[in-house]
Structure formats: structure tokens, C-alpha cells
Amino acid sequence: MPSPVMLTMRGVTRVHGHGAAEVHALRGVDLTVAMGELVAVMGPSGSGKSTLLHLAGGLDSPTSGSVRVGRDDVGALDAQGRARLRRRHVGYVFQDLNLVPALTALENVTLPLELDGVPARRARATGTAALAEVGLDDLADRFPDDMSGGQAQRVAIARALVGPRRLLLADEPTGALDSVTGEAVMRVLRARVDAGASGLLVTHDARHAAWADRIVFLRDGLVVDDTGAAGGPDQLLSEAARP
Ligand SMILES: Nc1ncnc2c1ncn2[C@@H]1O[C@H](COP(=O)(O)OP(=O)(O)OP(=O)(O)O)[C@@H](O)[C@H]1O
């Protein structure tokens, strides 16, 4: 029996800007991601990958078409409803880390839980477990400015994954990390998805895309290919390089 679908995008378009400055970032994208499925999104710079991720997480609204997360029609939620969906159910890892400099690693990680009313003790325990998942439980009391770029990125990943999130969105999550740590992060993402979450991963790196169940190729705002990962990194590299 197929797994229940977590994310459904139908006929999604997104036009940025107006008039002469108009950019058609997405031009009619259909995409579904099931529970327990990790989908990698690849494509050249400017093909619409980040726009797709923002729409999937309710950070942005489509110009036309529909985006559903579980039973929620993201376009039909008001700003408060979208904020609640993001806080409770969507985990983001973006290139921009956005850690709060005045908060320790653990406080940064527990922030989304506390904003959502989780009692402090439980938030602390859940946050400590999330830091341990990325191998940083030793640095719980350290401030972002006293960490390496890679450590800060792992804190951001722990924050994105803290609590029972059902949709994980990652935009080049391993960007600032060395390859061993990068692989550890992919392992955490994969484990969360295997435990039932759904994942959408934007990456230029075929080795990371090879962790996915399926790869979607975007070009000029359209899905041009949707394939299983069975061919492995070599095939992916040649696919990504295709004219
Ligand atoms: N806020 C915005 N205002 C105007 N144009 C935008 C905006 N955001 C994105 N764009 C444009 O939309 C198109 C798609 O951008 P997007 O960032 O989604 O692509 P991408 O595939 O993620 O690129 P990259 O791999 O370089 O991050 C690009 O032409 C970009 O310049």
C-alpha cells in the first residue's frame, strides 16, 4: 500500500516582481512527497529550487496552484495558521543560519519549542537529544560566535529537527560542513525520514542526492525529470550535467 502523502503541490507557479522585472521562478510544478520519503531537488542556479522549498514550508504563497501539507491547504491558512504550521510541523535548514547570537546552542535549539509552549524542562530534554543527534551535546552552553561555521550549521540543523516535525526542508544543509560531518547530517535527515517524516532536500551534490529515494530535476521553473536514486552518484552527476 502506498504511504500517505505529506506534501502535495499542484500546478504551482510563482512570479517574483512586477512588470519588466517579473521573474517566473516556478511555471507549473506538480510534486508529492510521501511520509517516509526523502526527495532531492537538483537543478542549475536560478531554476527555482529555493522558491519551491519556501512554498513547501508556507514561507511564501504560490501565485497560482495549490500547496498542501498533510490536510492543511497552505494557501488557505491565514498568517497565524501558517506560522503555527511552520513552528509545529515543518523543520527548515537553510543556508542562512539565523542563530540568535545572544542565546546558547541549547537555547537556540529549544526556542521553537518554547515559542510553542512546551514546558522548559521538557524543551531542555528534547533540545539536548537533538544536539546529541548532530554530535554537539558537549557544546550545549556555547554561544554561536564561539563556534566554527560547521558547528553553528549543526546547531541550526538540530534546531530544524527538534521535536516531532513531519516535513523537513533542507537547502544545501551541508554547505559549511566538511565531508565527514556533512555525511553525518545526511544520516540524521535519513533517520528522521525513515522514522516517518517527509524530507525535501535541495542539493548540488550528487553524493547527498544519493541518500534520497527520488530525485527531481528542475530547469527554468519546471520539473524536467523525476527519477529514483537507484543509478547512484555517477548517473546523477551525468544527469545533472545534461544540457
Ligand atoms: N524575492 C525575489 N525577487 C525577485 N526575484 C527572485 C526572488 N527570489 C528568487 N528570484 C528569482 O527567481 C528565480 C529562481 O530563484 P531560486 O532562488 O528559487 O533558484 P535556485 O534554483 O534556488 O537558485 P540557486 O541554486 O542559485 O540558489 C531566479 O531567477 C531568481 O533570481
Automatic annotation (TrEMBL):
What highest taxon heads this organism's lineage?
A: Bacteria
The alphabetical list of record keywords is: ATP-binding, Nucleotide-binding, Transport
Q: Gene3D superfamilies attached here?
A: P-loop containing nucleotide triphosphate hydrolases
Keyword match Heme: no
Q: What's an example GO cellular component term for this entry? A: plasma membrane
Q: Name one Pfam family in it.
A: ABC_tran
Q: Per the database record, which ranges form the ABC transporter domain?
A: 7-240
GO MF annotations for this entry? ATP binding; ATP hydrolysis activity; transmembrane transporter activity
Q: Which SMART domains does its entry note?
A: AAA
Has UniProt tagged this entry with the keyword RNA-binding? no
Q: What is this protein called?
A: Putative ABC transport system ATP-binding protein
Q: Which organism is it from?
A: Xylanimonas ulmi
Query: Source organism lineage?
Result: Bacteria, Bacillati, Actinomycetota, Actinomycetes, Micrococcales
